[in-house]
Amino acid sequence: MALKKLLPGELGFGTAPLGNMFRDIPEEEAQATVDAAWNDGIRYYDTAPLYGAGLAELRIGEALARRPRRDYVISTKVGRLILDEVEDKGEGGIFQHGRPNRVVNDYSADATLRSIDDSLRRLNTDHVEIVWVHDVAQDAYGDEWLGIFESARKGAFKTLDRLRDEGVIKAWGLGVNRVEPIELLLELEEPQPDGFLLAGRYTLLDHDRALQRVMPQVSARGLGIVVGGPYSSGALVGGPNFEYAPAPREILDKVARIKEIADRHGISMKAAGLHFSLANPAVAAVIPGASRPGRIAEDRAALQETVPADFWRDLRQAGLVHPDAPLPGGI
């Protein structure tokens, strides 16, 4: 199914922060954040077993349990299994404050089915609409990523393709932070995905490769892209991180240049980021993450801001967006 038809609106909710990403989030704060998203009208929730070793899925499952299941869409991911045994997560990992359960990587057919069953239990539901194959890319596996991709091709891809054809799920694809695995999957005659969750690669700060290498193919095939991390791990909106690590000087300089133009036109950086991502016809939705209720209202306000055409012209003239990037209003 085409993602734009399946997804209920262009603004969704990325739940990675609810896995205690970078900090120990109190349970009541996590639940209040999901409630704020629901009360705002958000009906698409993306999650994954990896987020806090199942913690994000458990929190989403609890928060949505009292909502009519037909009224919202869930996507989760496969490729990581959460075991009952525990392990020391050490210091410095982005989910070091999550559950202590051991996480193992497995993209086989059997593991894919088990992962979905486990997710359904944590999510307190009998189905999910979309399943992404998680992180089959170099940033997760280094030089071994092509072997991981091949394992997923033989296992997860074929399994999800069958589940989609059987009506068990409505769509599947890759959930990745890099464009290369998307290119590789699009080259295959079969199986055929429905779209992709691409995190961090179609933002104001980093979009050249996605724009040139995957967006045209996705559009031509009638597929769709869900943009994760539209604020580039927070760097675009004044945070210290880019790609889950301290932002390098060139990124901070680019942010400062964009912000100077945004301030001159009286718009927020969140508005600039969301409107830019959504202007590409291949994009079906954006899913900024949130761990505080107030962030939801900020995202909605940013989406409703009127961004003047002169802002986009100034960005283009300053060389801060790719010359071929679609901009709002057809600029």
From TrEMBL:
<dbReference type="InterPro" id="IPR020471">
    <property type="entry name" value="AKR"/>
</dbReference>
<dbReference type="GO" id="GO:0016491">
    <property type="term" value="F:oxidoreductase activity"/>
</dbReference>
<dbReference type="InterPro" id="IPR036812">
    <property type="entry name" value="NAD(P)_OxRdtase_dom_sf"/>
</dbReference>
<dbReference type="GO" id="GO:0005829">
    <property type="term" value="C:cytosol"/>
</dbReference>
<dbReference type="Pfam" id="PF00248">
    <property type="entry name" value="Aldo_ket_red"/>
</dbReference>
<dbReference type="InterPro" id="IPR023210">
    <property type="entry name" value="NADP_OxRdtase_dom"/>
</dbReference>
<feature type="domain" description="NADP-dependent oxidoreductase">
    <location>
        <begin position="10"/>
        <end position="317"/>
    </location>
</feature>
<protein>
    <submittedName>
        <fullName>D-threo-aldose 1-dehydrogenase</fullName>
    </submittedName>
</protein>
